[in-house]
Amino acid sequence: xxxxITLGQYYPTDSVLxxxxxxxxxxxxxxxxxxxFLFQNFTxxxxxxxxLVSMILLSRVPFSFMVxxxxxxxxxLAITVLINLFATPGIPLVSxxxxxxTKEGIRSAAFMMLRLIYLIIGSSIMTLTTTPKNLTDxxxxxxxxxxxxxxxxxxxxxxxxxxxxxxxxxxxxxDKIMKAQMARGADFExxxxxxxxxxxxxxxxxxxxxxxxxxxxxxxxxxARCYQGGNGRTKxxxxxxxxxxxxxxxxxxxxxxxxxxxxRIPALKL
Length: 270
Description:
two-stranded antiparallel ribbon; flat
């Protein structure tokens, strides 16, 4: 289960998305995620599906590897869908015991399921095709205007980059701790859901100790190298826009226009 989390991991390969400027991918991810909350009919989700499938193909990341991240949130996904299915008022279709499934509930559950799946896959595409260093540079460059009002842009970008880079490290550490405790007789796989969650509690103490130790080692390493933040620092490979980045901005603008215009056409509303 832990190895199924793909958020924060980088998949090294040569693709169009890998070569794009990280600022383009950051803006594209934000626009795509925000567009999911604007859709109110299936036309919008058809547009999002076409756009997402195109990005997956361009990334050249195996689809099986990308959807592995859904396994880690399948319980959350199921709970969210069930809540929307049974708690949404409207025209009743099926009733049993104290539960009623409505037409609006089915629609709301379907939209919520698609929204969560696309949120996870869309976010994973950015991290799978962008190294933590490039992601830090892109975030810092994109947020640089905020430094005029004393916002610590470099520190914010550095913290988010470190957090993303530590996700696979902590997952690997958790897997090692689980295997060590299972070798000593611990059981993490039998019993119902609540018992499994209770059995995971002993993992927290050694995991937190390991996380704090790694954070302290990183802080000491940065201090030993006289790290002083982003003021006055230069970059060996500064970010520069290329023709492919401008083309990507044009495609993103067309997608944004399509998400605004097409769902409002009465003939296309589903």
